[in-house]
Amino acid sequence: MSVGPEELSAKHEGEKVQYSQDSVARAAQHVADWAERGRNAWGEVPGIEMASCGVGFAEFGARLASAAERLRKHGRDMYAGLGDHAPAIKEQWAQFVDTEEFSRVSFGRIGVQQ
């Protein structure tokens, strides 16, 4: 699912800017879903068996296995962090709407027409 600008567009009602809560919720869900898919994909990355590296290469196999695990952990952590942003999207849009309204009122007080 792609969330494009048309789904998050503002509409003007009189002088007040309104944002669709459904659109904001879809955007937040899109980020959460993307993060979940990323975590799952990194979880499916296969490990390296030391024995598959061959006789005499166990040390290299252990180092490769450790490096692969660090990569998987980094990938999972990265997508977990992305998923943590999803709830903040809704809050940020709410703050934007509040700021927009405050700015409109403030500008009106000093005679600035928008």
List the keywords.
single chain, 2 helices, rod-shaped, 5% strand, 114 residues
Describe this structure in words.
This protein has helices at 21-43, 58-109; strands spanning 11-13, 16-18. The protein is mainly α and 114 residues long. The protein starts with 10 loop residues before the first strand and ends in a 5-residue tail after the last helix. A two-stranded antiparallel sheet has the order 1-2.
Summarize the structure.
With 114 residues, the protein is mainly alpha-helical. The chain is built from 2 helices and 2 strands.
- Poorly predicted regions are 1-10
- Our count of helices gives 2
Mean pLDDT: 75
Beta-strand proportion: 5-15%
State the share of residues found in helices, binned by percent: 55-70%
Q: Please describe the biggest sheet, giving its number of strands, its sense, and whether it closes into a barrel.
A: 2 strands, antiparallel
- Summarize the helix and strand pattern as letters: EEHH
Distance between the termini: 35 Å
Beta-strand segment tally:
2
What is the approximate shape?
Answer: rod-shaped
> What class do helices, strands and sheet pairing give?
mainly alpha
Strand order of the largest sheet: 1-2
- Roughly how many Å is the radius of gyration? 24 Å
